[in-house]
Protein backbone atom coordinates (compact mmCIF):
# COMPACT_ATOMS: atom_id res chain seq x y z
CA UNK A 1 0.00 0.00 0.00
CA UNK A 2 1.43 3.39 -0.95
CA UNK A 3 1.99 6.14 1.56
CA UNK A 4 -0.75 8.29 -0.02
CA UNK A 5 -3.33 5.51 0.37
CA UNK A 6 -2.37 4.98 4.01
CA UNK A 7 -2.77 8.69 4.72
CA UNK A 8 -6.12 8.72 2.86
CA UNK A 9 -7.47 5.69 4.81
CA UNK A 10 -6.35 7.15 8.11
CA UNK A 11 -8.19 10.36 7.28
CA UNK A 12 -11.41 8.50 6.50
CA UNK A 13 -11.11 6.54 9.75
CA UNK A 14 -10.58 9.74 11.71
CA UNK A 15 -13.71 11.22 10.15
CA UNK A 16 -15.72 8.06 10.85
CA UNK A 17 -14.71 7.60 14.51
CA UNK A 18 -16.90 10.42 15.91
CA UNK A 19 -19.94 9.03 14.06
CA UNK A 20 -19.23 5.53 15.32
CA UNK A 21 -18.84 6.86 18.86
CA UNK A 22 -22.12 8.76 18.62
CA UNK A 23 -23.88 5.67 17.28
CA UNK A 24 -22.45 3.57 20.12
CA UNK A 25 -23.52 6.15 22.71
CA UNK A 26 -27.03 6.22 21.21
CA UNK A 27 -27.16 2.44 21.43
CA UNK A 28 -26.09 2.48 25.07
CA UNK A 29 -28.64 5.21 25.90
CA UNK A 30 -31.40 3.21 24.19
CA UNK A 31 -30.43 0.10 26.14
CA UNK A 32 -30.38 2.02 29.41
CA UNK A 33 -33.74 3.59 28.59
CA UNK A 34 -35.22 0.14 27.95
CA UNK A 35 -33.93 -1.19 31.29
CA UNK A 36 -35.98 -0.28 34.38
CA UNK A 37 -34.33 1.66 37.16
CA UNK A 38 -32.94 -1.16 39.35
CA UNK A 39 -33.72 0.68 42.58
CA UNK A 40 -37.27 1.45 41.46
CA UNK A 41 -37.75 -2.20 40.45
CA UNK A 42 -36.31 -3.55 43.70
CA UNK A 43 -38.25 -1.27 46.05
CA UNK A 44 -41.54 -1.82 44.21
CA UNK A 45 -41.01 -5.57 44.27
CA UNK A 46 -40.20 -5.51 47.99
CA UNK A 47 -43.40 -3.52 48.62
CA UNK A 48 -45.51 -6.14 46.82
CA UNK A 49 -43.72 -8.98 48.58
CA UNK A 50 -44.03 -7.60 52.10
CA UNK A 51 -47.57 -6.35 51.47
CA UNK A 52 -48.59 -9.77 50.21
CA UNK A 53 -47.10 -11.48 53.26
CA UNK A 54 -49.03 -9.13 55.57
CA UNK A 55 -52.30 -9.71 53.71
CA UNK A 56 -51.68 -13.46 53.75
CA UNK A 57 -51.39 -13.16 57.55
CA UNK A 58 -54.93 -11.73 57.49
CA UNK A 59 -56.08 -15.24 56.59
CA UNK A 60 -54.97 -16.24 60.08
CA UNK A 61 -56.86 -13.25 61.45
CA UNK A 62 -60.09 -14.28 59.76
CA UNK A 63 -59.60 -17.82 61.00
CA UNK A 64 -59.08 -16.80 64.62
CA UNK A 65 -61.91 -14.26 64.55
CA UNK A 66 -64.35 -16.80 63.15
CA UNK A 67 -63.11 -19.61 65.42
CA UNK A 68 -63.74 -17.37 68.41
CA UNK A 69 -67.20 -16.23 67.33
CA UNK A 70 -68.68 -19.60 66.36
CA UNK A 71 -69.80 -22.14 68.95
CA UNK A 72 -67.24 -24.67 70.15
CA UNK A 73 -68.81 -27.51 68.16
CA UNK A 74 -68.02 -25.75 64.88
CA UNK A 75 -64.51 -24.39 65.47
CA UNK A 76 -62.62 -27.09 63.55
CA UNK A 77 -64.93 -26.58 60.60
CA UNK A 78 -64.10 -22.86 60.47
CA UNK A 79 -60.39 -23.58 60.65
CA UNK A 80 -60.68 -26.09 57.82
CA UNK A 81 -62.82 -23.75 55.71
CA UNK A 82 -60.34 -20.91 56.03
CA UNK A 83 -57.19 -22.82 55.15
CA UNK A 84 -58.95 -24.56 52.25
CA UNK A 85 -60.61 -21.43 50.84
CA UNK A 86 -57.26 -19.61 50.95
CA UNK A 87 -55.53 -22.44 49.10
CA UNK A 88 -58.30 -22.85 46.55
CA UNK A 89 -58.55 -19.11 45.97
CA UNK A 90 -54.84 -18.75 45.22
CA UNK A 91 -54.87 -21.66 42.77
CA UNK A 92 -57.97 -20.62 40.84
CA UNK A 93 -56.77 -17.02 40.74
CA UNK A 94 -53.61 -18.31 39.02
CA UNK A 95 -55.62 -20.56 36.72
CA UNK A 96 -57.99 -17.90 35.42
CA UNK A 97 -58.57 -15.00 37.82
CA UNK A 98 -55.48 -12.83 37.34
CA UNK A 99 -55.62 -12.62 33.53
CA UNK A 100 -59.39 -12.24 33.63
CA UNK A 101 -58.87 -9.24 35.88
CA UNK A 102 -55.82 -7.57 34.34
CA UNK A 103 -54.97 -8.79 30.84
CA UNK A 104 -56.61 -7.24 27.79
CA UNK A 105 -59.48 -5.51 29.59
CA UNK A 106 -58.87 -2.25 27.68
CA UNK A 107 -61.89 -0.30 28.91
CA UNK A 108 -64.21 -3.31 28.62
CA UNK A 109 -65.91 -5.77 30.94
CA UNK A 110 -63.29 -8.47 31.56
CA UNK A 111 -59.92 -9.73 30.39
CA UNK A 112 -58.68 -13.08 29.13
CA UNK A 113 -59.62 -16.57 30.27
CA UNK A 114 -56.10 -17.97 30.53
CA UNK A 115 -53.66 -19.21 33.19
CA UNK A 116 -51.05 -16.84 34.53
CA UNK A 117 -47.63 -17.32 32.88
CA UNK A 118 -44.65 -15.88 34.72
CA UNK A 119 -41.70 -14.58 32.66
CA UNK A 120 -38.14 -15.71 33.34
CA UNK A 121 -36.32 -13.41 35.80
CA UNK A 122 -34.12 -12.05 33.00
CA UNK A 123 -37.21 -11.14 30.97
CA UNK A 124 -39.17 -9.59 33.87
CA UNK A 125 -38.22 -6.02 32.95
CA UNK A 126 -41.18 -3.95 34.09
CA UNK A 127 -41.30 -1.62 37.09
CA UNK A 128 -41.73 -4.58 39.48
CA UNK A 129 -41.61 -8.37 39.57
CA UNK A 130 -44.75 -9.74 37.94
CA UNK A 131 -44.66 -12.76 40.23
CA UNK A 132 -44.84 -10.61 43.36
CA UNK A 133 -47.68 -8.58 41.85
CA UNK A 134 -49.61 -11.80 41.28
CA UNK A 135 -48.82 -12.92 44.83
CA UNK A 136 -50.10 -9.65 46.26
CA UNK A 137 -53.27 -9.58 44.14
CA UNK A 138 -54.10 -13.21 44.91
CA UNK A 139 -54.17 -12.37 48.62
CA UNK A 140 -56.95 -9.86 47.97
CA UNK A 141 -58.92 -12.51 46.13
CA UNK A 142 -58.68 -14.91 49.07
CA UNK A 143 -59.77 -12.12 51.42
CA UNK A 144 -63.07 -11.70 49.58
CA UNK A 145 -63.82 -15.39 50.10
CA UNK A 146 -62.92 -15.23 53.81
CA UNK A 147 -65.69 -12.65 54.32
CA UNK A 148 -68.30 -15.14 53.11
CA UNK A 149 -67.02 -17.88 55.39
CA UNK A 150 -67.82 -16.03 58.59
CA UNK A 151 -71.35 -15.02 57.63
CA UNK A 152 -72.59 -18.50 56.63
CA UNK A 153 -70.76 -20.34 59.40
CA UNK A 154 -72.29 -23.28 61.32
CA UNK A 155 -74.88 -24.28 58.71
CA UNK A 156 -73.20 -24.89 55.36
CA UNK A 157 -71.45 -28.06 54.21
CA UNK A 158 -67.78 -27.95 53.32
CA UNK A 159 -67.65 -28.98 49.66
CA UNK A 160 -70.65 -26.96 48.47
CA UNK A 161 -69.11 -23.93 50.18
CA UNK A 162 -65.76 -24.51 48.45
CA UNK A 163 -67.54 -24.84 45.12
CA UNK A 164 -68.95 -21.36 45.67
CA UNK A 165 -65.46 -20.10 46.57
CA UNK A 166 -64.18 -21.55 43.29
CA UNK A 167 -66.65 -19.47 41.28
CA UNK A 168 -66.25 -16.37 43.44
CA UNK A 169 -62.44 -16.31 43.18
CA UNK A 170 -62.23 -17.52 39.60
CA UNK A 171 -65.02 -15.53 37.95
CA UNK A 172 -67.05 -13.07 40.06
CA UNK A 173 -64.29 -11.25 41.92
CA UNK A 174 -61.93 -10.93 38.91
CA UNK A 175 -64.67 -9.55 36.64
CA UNK A 176 -65.73 -6.78 39.02
CA UNK A 177 -62.08 -6.06 39.78
CA UNK A 178 -61.30 -5.72 36.08
CA UNK A 179 -63.88 -2.94 35.75
CA UNK A 180 -61.75 -0.57 37.87
CA UNK A 181 -58.31 -1.96 38.71
CA UNK A 182 -57.90 -3.74 35.39
CA UNK A 183 -58.61 -0.60 33.35
CA UNK A 184 -62.21 -1.53 32.56
CA UNK A 185 -65.28 0.59 32.04
CA UNK A 186 -65.60 1.78 35.65
CA UNK A 187 -62.11 3.26 35.57
CA UNK A 188 -63.18 5.22 32.47
CA UNK A 189 -66.03 6.93 34.36
CA UNK A 190 -63.75 7.96 37.23
CA UNK A 191 -64.63 5.40 39.90
CA UNK A 192 -62.00 5.41 42.66
CA UNK A 193 -61.29 2.61 45.16
CA UNK A 194 -57.73 2.77 46.49
CA UNK A 195 -57.51 -0.68 48.12
CA UNK A 196 -60.95 -2.25 47.82
CA UNK A 197 -63.75 -1.03 50.09
CA UNK A 198 -66.06 -1.97 47.23
CA UNK A 199 -63.94 -4.17 44.96
CA UNK A 200 -62.89 -6.54 47.76
CA UNK A 201 -64.96 -5.98 50.88
CA UNK A 202 -68.35 -5.16 49.38
CA UNK A 203 -67.94 -7.98 46.87
CA UNK A 204 -67.41 -10.36 49.77
CA UNK A 205 -70.27 -8.69 51.65
CA UNK A 206 -72.76 -9.05 48.79
CA UNK A 207 -71.76 -12.68 48.28
CA UNK A 208 -72.18 -13.27 52.02
CA UNK A 209 -75.58 -11.57 52.12
CA UNK A 210 -76.99 -13.64 49.26
CA UNK A 211 -75.60 -16.77 50.90
CA UNK A 212 -77.20 -15.93 54.24
CA UNK A 213 -80.58 -15.34 52.57
CA UNK A 214 -80.50 -18.51 50.48
CA UNK A 215 -79.03 -20.85 53.10
CA UNK A 216 -81.17 -19.44 55.89
CA UNK A 217 -80.51 -18.93 59.59
CA UNK A 218 -79.09 -21.45 62.03
CA UNK A 219 -81.67 -23.63 63.74
CA UNK A 220 -82.93 -21.85 66.83
CA UNK A 221 -81.39 -18.50 65.91
CA UNK A 222 -84.83 -16.84 65.68
CA UNK A 223 -87.98 -17.83 67.52
CA UNK A 224 -91.37 -18.32 65.88
CA UNK A 225 -92.46 -14.85 66.98
CA UNK A 226 -89.35 -13.26 65.45
CA UNK A 227 -87.20 -12.75 68.54
CA UNK A 228 -83.44 -13.03 68.16
CA UNK A 229 -81.70 -15.74 70.21
CA UNK A 230 -78.09 -14.99 71.11
CA UNK A 231 -75.65 -17.82 70.36
CA UNK A 232 -72.39 -16.88 72.11
CA UNK A 233 -69.10 -17.74 70.49
CA UNK A 234 -66.53 -20.16 71.83
CA UNK A 235 -63.67 -17.81 72.72
CA UNK A 236 -63.53 -14.04 73.09
CA UNK A 237 -59.71 -14.10 73.49
CA UNK A 238 -59.41 -15.97 70.19
CA UNK A 239 -61.73 -13.51 68.43
CA UNK A 240 -59.75 -10.57 69.87
CA UNK A 241 -56.50 -12.09 68.62
CA UNK A 242 -58.08 -12.45 65.19
CA UNK A 243 -59.12 -8.80 65.14
CA UNK A 244 -55.61 -7.67 66.09
CA UNK A 245 -54.09 -9.87 63.36
CA UNK A 246 -56.47 -8.39 60.79
CA UNK A 247 -55.60 -4.87 61.98
CA UNK A 248 -51.89 -5.67 61.60
CA UNK A 249 -52.32 -7.24 58.17
CA UNK A 250 -54.32 -4.24 56.97
CA UNK A 251 -51.13 -2.18 56.92
CA UNK A 252 -50.06 -4.35 53.99
CA UNK A 253 -53.55 -4.39 52.50
CA UNK A 254 -53.71 -0.59 52.28
CA UNK A 255 -50.05 0.39 52.45
CA UNK A 256 -48.85 -1.74 49.56
CA UNK A 257 -51.82 -0.60 47.46
CA UNK A 258 -49.80 2.52 46.77
CA UNK A 259 -48.20 0.07 44.26
CA UNK A 260 -44.84 1.87 44.25
CA UNK A 261 -41.99 2.55 46.65
CA UNK A 262 -39.26 3.74 44.30
CA UNK A 263 -39.46 7.47 44.98
CA UNK A 264 -39.48 9.73 48.02
CA UNK A 265 -43.08 10.70 47.26
CA UNK A 266 -44.17 7.06 47.07
CA UNK A 267 -42.46 6.24 50.37
CA UNK A 268 -44.12 9.23 52.04
CA UNK A 269 -47.49 8.16 50.62
CA UNK A 270 -47.12 4.63 52.00
CA UNK A 271 -46.37 6.12 55.41
CA UNK A 272 -49.42 8.36 55.29
CA UNK A 273 -51.64 5.47 54.18
CA UNK A 274 -50.48 3.33 57.10
CA UNK A 275 -51.04 6.13 59.64
CA UNK A 276 -54.55 6.87 58.32
CA UNK A 277 -55.39 3.17 58.31
CA UNK A 278 -54.35 2.85 61.95
CA UNK A 279 -56.21 6.03 62.89
CA UNK A 280 -59.49 4.88 61.32
CA UNK A 281 -59.36 1.56 63.15
CA UNK A 282 -58.60 3.19 66.49
CA UNK A 283 -61.45 5.66 66.03
CA UNK A 284 -63.71 2.76 65.07
CA UNK A 285 -63.07 1.03 68.39
CA UNK A 286 -63.74 4.12 70.51
CA UNK A 287 -66.84 5.20 68.59
CA UNK A 288 -68.38 1.73 68.74
CA UNK A 289 -67.76 1.60 72.49
CA UNK A 290 -69.35 5.02 73.04
CA UNK A 291 -72.40 4.15 70.94
CA UNK A 292 -72.85 0.84 72.77
CA UNK A 293 -72.57 2.54 76.17
CA UNK A 294 -75.08 5.25 75.26
CA UNK A 295 -77.62 2.97 73.59
CA UNK A 296 -77.29 -0.31 75.52
CA UNK A 297 -75.56 0.84 78.75
CA UNK A 298 -72.96 -1.90 78.26
CA UNK A 299 -69.99 -2.28 75.94
CA UNK A 300 -70.05 -5.51 73.92
CA UNK A 301 -66.46 -6.58 73.25
CA UNK A 302 -67.42 -8.24 69.96
CA UNK A 303 -68.91 -4.95 68.81
CA UNK A 304 -65.65 -3.18 69.68
CA UNK A 305 -63.76 -5.73 67.57
CA UNK A 306 -66.12 -5.20 64.65
CA UNK A 307 -65.87 -1.45 65.22
CA UNK A 308 -62.15 -1.67 64.50
CA UNK A 309 -62.80 -3.71 61.38
CA UNK A 310 -65.57 -1.35 60.25
CA UNK A 311 -63.16 1.56 60.55
CA UNK A 312 -60.55 -0.35 58.56
CA UNK A 313 -62.97 -1.23 55.77
CA UNK A 314 -64.27 2.35 55.58
CA UNK A 315 -60.81 3.93 55.16
CA UNK A 316 -59.71 1.35 52.60
CA UNK A 317 -61.37 3.16 49.68
CA UNK A 318 -59.16 6.23 50.18
CA UNK A 319 -56.49 6.10 52.88
CA UNK A 320 -54.06 8.52 51.19
CA UNK A 321 -55.82 11.88 50.85
CA UNK A 322 -57.56 12.25 54.26
CA UNK A 323 -56.01 14.22 57.09
CA UNK A 324 -55.56 12.54 60.46
CA UNK A 325 -58.88 13.99 61.63
CA UNK A 326 -60.70 13.04 58.42
CA UNK A 327 -59.43 9.45 58.72
CA UNK A 328 -60.73 9.28 62.29
CA UNK A 329 -64.15 10.61 61.20
CA UNK A 330 -64.40 8.16 58.29
CA UNK A 331 -63.43 5.22 60.49
CA UNK A 332 -65.68 6.34 63.33
CA UNK A 333 -68.74 6.65 61.08
CA UNK A 334 -67.96 3.23 59.60
CA UNK A 335 -67.95 1.72 63.09
CA UNK A 336 -71.18 3.50 64.07
CA UNK A 337 -72.88 2.08 60.99
CA UNK A 338 -71.75 -1.40 62.04
CA UNK A 339 -73.35 -0.96 65.47
CA UNK A 340 -76.60 0.14 63.82
CA UNK A 341 -76.59 -2.57 61.15
CA UNK A 342 -76.10 -5.57 63.45
CA UNK A 343 -79.51 -5.30 65.21
CA UNK A 344 -81.11 -4.35 61.89
CA UNK A 345 -80.05 -7.70 60.44
CA UNK A 346 -81.59 -9.41 63.47
CA UNK A 347 -84.88 -7.65 62.81
CA UNK A 348 -84.75 -8.85 59.22
CA UNK A 349 -83.96 -12.39 60.46
CA UNK A 350 -80.67 -12.49 58.56
CA UNK A 351 -78.19 -14.67 60.43
CA UNK A 352 -74.65 -13.30 60.13
CA UNK A 353 -72.53 -15.22 62.63
CA UNK A 354 -69.52 -12.86 62.79
CA UNK A 355 -71.07 -9.58 61.64
CA UNK A 356 -69.32 -9.62 58.27
CA UNK A 357 -72.19 -7.99 56.38
CA UNK A 358 -72.25 -4.82 58.54
CA UNK A 359 -68.44 -4.66 58.58
CA UNK A 360 -67.57 -5.40 54.97
CA UNK A 361 -70.70 -4.44 53.03
CA UNK A 362 -72.19 -1.53 54.99
CA UNK A 363 -68.87 0.06 56.00
CA UNK A 364 -67.52 -0.67 52.52
CA UNK A 365 -70.33 1.28 50.89
CA UNK A 366 -69.82 4.17 53.30
CA UNK A 367 -66.07 4.26 52.71
CA UNK A 368 -66.55 4.32 48.94
CA UNK A 369 -69.05 7.18 49.18
CA UNK A 370 -66.68 9.11 51.45
CA UNK A 371 -63.87 9.24 48.87
CA UNK A 372 -64.96 12.55 47.21
CA UNK A 373 -64.92 14.32 50.60
CA UNK A 374 -61.12 14.12 50.72
CA UNK A 375 -60.15 13.38 47.12
CA UNK A 376 -61.24 16.16 44.74
CA UNK A 377 -60.54 13.96 41.70
CA UNK A 378 -63.41 11.64 42.67
CA UNK A 379 -67.11 12.34 42.18
CA UNK A 380 -70.17 11.13 44.06
CA UNK A 381 -71.86 10.05 40.80
CA UNK A 382 -68.90 7.88 39.78
CA UNK A 383 -68.72 6.33 43.24
CA UNK A 384 -72.45 5.56 43.22
CA UNK A 385 -72.12 4.03 39.77
CA UNK A 386 -69.41 1.70 41.02
CA UNK A 387 -71.29 0.73 44.18
CA UNK A 388 -74.50 -0.07 42.31
CA UNK A 389 -72.83 -1.87 39.39
CA UNK A 390 -70.54 -4.03 41.53
CA UNK A 391 -73.32 -4.72 44.02
CA UNK A 392 -75.89 -5.70 41.39
CA UNK A 393 -73.53 -7.96 39.48
CA UNK A 394 -72.13 -9.64 42.58
CA UNK A 395 -75.51 -10.18 44.21
CA UNK A 396 -77.14 -11.58 41.06
CA UNK A 397 -74.16 -13.77 40.11
CA UNK A 398 -73.75 -15.03 43.69
CA UNK A 399 -77.46 -15.81 44.00
CA UNK A 400 -77.36 -17.82 40.77
CA UNK A 401 -74.35 -19.80 41.99
CA UNK A 402 -75.76 -20.40 45.48
CA UNK A 403 -79.13 -21.54 44.06
CA UNK A 404 -77.48 -23.81 41.49
CA UNK A 405 -75.33 -25.48 44.14
CA UNK A 406 -78.35 -25.83 46.41
CA UNK A 407 -80.36 -27.49 43.65
CA UNK A 408 -77.64 -29.88 42.53
CA UNK A 409 -75.67 -30.72 45.68
CA UNK A 410 -77.50 -29.14 48.61
CA UNK A 411 -76.01 -26.57 50.95
CA UNK A 412 -77.06 -27.39 54.49
CA UNK A 413 -76.32 -30.37 56.68
CA UNK A 414 -79.28 -32.20 58.16
CA UNK A 415 -80.87 -30.85 61.34
CA UNK A 416 -79.29 -33.68 63.31
CA UNK A 417 -75.83 -32.92 61.88
CA UNK A 418 -76.20 -29.23 62.55
CA UNK A 419 -77.29 -29.88 66.15
CA UNK A 420 -74.37 -32.26 66.66
CA UNK A 421 -71.93 -29.72 65.24
CA UNK A 422 -70.03 -29.67 61.98
CA UNK A 423 -66.78 -30.62 63.72
CA UNK A 424 -68.21 -34.10 64.25
CA UNK A 425 -70.46 -34.47 61.23
CA UNK A 426 -68.28 -32.87 58.53
CA UNK A 427 -64.69 -32.73 59.79
CA UNK A 428 -64.35 -35.65 62.17
CA UNK A 429 -61.95 -33.70 64.41
CA UNK A 430 -63.25 -31.67 67.34
CA UNK A 431 -61.51 -28.47 68.37
CA UNK A 432 -62.20 -29.03 72.07
CA UNK A 433 -62.60 -32.81 72.61
CA UNK A 434 -62.10 -32.61 76.38
CA UNK A 435 -64.97 -30.15 76.65
CA UNK A 436 -67.21 -32.40 74.55
CA UNK A 437 -66.32 -35.41 76.70
CA UNK A 438 -67.11 -33.46 79.86
CA UNK A 439 -70.56 -32.58 78.51
CA UNK A 440 -71.29 -36.23 77.87
Automatic annotation (TrEMBL):
GO molecular function: ammonium channel activity
A GO term from the CC aspect: membrane
Main location: membrane
Domain Ammonium transporter AmtB-like: 47-432
Signal peptide: 1-23
Keyword Transmembrane helix on entry: yes
One GO biological process term: ammonium homeostasis
Name this protein carries in UniProt: Ammonium transporter
Lineage: Bacteria, Pseudomonadati, Pseudomonadota, Alphaproteobacteria, Hyphomicrobiales
